[in-house]
Amino acid sequence: MKQSLRWNCACSLLLLSAAFVSADVVVTSDGSRLVGTIEQWADGTVVLDTEFAGRLKIDATKIKSITTEGRLNVEFTSGDRLVGTMASDPQQDETVMHTELGEIPIATERIKAAWRVGADSPDVIALKKTMQQAQEALKPRWTTTLEVGGSMREGNVDTKEIRGRFDLQRKTDQDLLKFFLAAHFAEQDDLRTENEYKGGIWYENQLDERRFWYTRIELEFDEFENLDLRATAAAGLGRYWLKQPERELKTSAGLGYRHEAFNTGRTTGQAVIDLALNYRVDLAPWVQLTHSGLFSPAIEDFDDYRLDFDTAFVFPFKQENWKLKLGMTNQYNSQPQPGIVRLDNTYYANVVLELK
Length: 356
Hints:
With 356 residues, this protein is mainly beta. 10% of the residues lie in helices and 65% in strands. A hairpin with a 3-residue loop joins β16 and β17. Residues 1-21 have low confidence and may be disordered.
């Protein structure tokens, strides 16, 4: 029984002494004494892991002295390095490093970085973090967006209208791939007044930080334009004039081919110029402005062209993946089919769900 008690006491003393041995002591200029384990000293900040308050970040300029039990790699502003333990000398009001070369007085204000022996230096840690961020940036990020809007009225005139759009986007630091499908359907007194469908693909690849090349394909059906199919394929170059988290402006210019087939039996095919502008800006934390414009005149006849604009204000809800989108689309055809007006305006209010 007594022997067991002696062993327990001995083990307790060993554990207690080990706790003290592993402890580092930091004394600040105001006289505070902090006990823990120094993890790193870099960029003017000392990280001290304590039992009572977790990881503390201490301003290195406010440190008066340091005492360590474990060996540290210490790099000075002069570029010199020492390896050893550090101890405070209250009588001389200085810190001394115990190294294999002997005791060397040091000034804490000249320490550039320090880290535990066997651990990575702050430079290596920063390099690994940069490489990890670069690897993450190369990974494709998929975003799915669903938009739905509509209206219904009953009375002297019964009307129904529904709009929907589906977007799928994959983005990396090197390229951007987008798919979209949109539909607009309306009835008045059980007679269709709108029946339009669109779909397309956009791909762009960065040439450098600002410039890119792109290609796109778009298909369209519109019953009330007598349009069975409008297919457009184009390719060209573009540039980001603004590329910031809160705003983005890009333009593109290229050449393409547009094929149109109408339910009257008429078909056309012509080479076109493909000019586009896209703009996005966060006006405030609660509202965003988006605008896209496309101008595509025929090369042989500049009087034959199409203009497409989409301008909207986007209001995020408390749950950021839900948004309200209020906007207007303008479609202008300079040479429409007989009986069809040139300008078609649509005002819409859509609920948007964005999934990442």
